[in-house]
Amino acid sequence: MSLKGPTPQQHDGSALRIGIVHARWNATIIEPLVAGAKAKLLECGVKESNIVVQSCPGSWELPIATKRLYVASKYQTTGGSPAFDAIIAVGVLIKGETMHFEYIADSVSHGLMRVQLDTDIPVIFGVLTVLNDEQALARAGVDGKGHNHGEDWGLAAVEMGVKRRE
Ligand SMILES: O=Nc1c(NC[C@H](O)[C@H](O)[C@H](O)CO)[nH]c(=O)[nH]c1=O
Predict the structure, then answer these.
(1) Pairing state of beta strands 123-130 and 86-94?
(2) Of 44, 79, 113, 163, which is least surrounded by CB within 10 A?
(3) Which residue lies with its CA nearest to atom 5 of ligand 1?
(4) What is the crossing angle of helices 27-43 and 149-165, to 10°?
(5) Whose CA is nearest to atom 6 of ligand 1?
(6) Could you report the per-residue pLDDT of 27-36, keeping only the tens digit for each?
């Protein structure tokens, strides 16, 4: 058994509304990650109609796309309270030949942390920062290898969404 990974908890997601914002770079990895997160949301009782999925060009755009989803939702509900209990930001950064990877990874991680602290809406960090395709495939659970990290992000979104309402 791996020493890594979160200790799972059981939470009832039936009252939650969850956003998923995903980049479109490296779509063959993004797709299983988003599917894994969504499957766990549904397994925890989140209603399909309460899962909103949006996309953006790449991981660099995740912080602003996540912030915009929160802001837009705030004005769609009565009383201006945000409509989302948590948002999962999904991206796949694969190291290339240049320093581009480092700059995006660093900026996106700080950006997403800032969005969640500024908005008080939990933003689950679903950005893979990997050194090669094999690492990406293993973390998306593709071809039965490795573990789909999207599932962990779905569970984290339910836990944080429930706790935000307590
Ligand atoms: O470069 N590699 C990647 C990437 N670059 C695009 C960047 O996020 C942004 O969309 C553009 O720079 C335009 O702002 N975006 C990713 O999600 N993964 C990568 O591996």
Answers:
(1) parallel
(2) 79
(3) 58
(4) 40
(5) 58
(6) 999 999 999 9
The pTM of the full predicted model, rounded to 2 decimals, is 0.95
Identify the residue whose tokens are 């700059």.
Answer: 103
Evaluate: CB of 160 within 6 angstroms of ligand 1. Answer: no
Alpha helices in the chain (DSSP H): 27-43, 62-74, 100-119, 133-139, 149-165
91 lines ligand 1 (CB under 6 A): yes
pLDDT in tens, 86-140: 999 999 999 999 999 999 999 999 999 999 999 999 999 999 999 999 999 999 9
Round to whole Å and give the CA distance between 150 and 56: 18
Bridge partners, residue 14, by sequence: none
Ligand 1 centroid–CA 100 distance in Å is 8
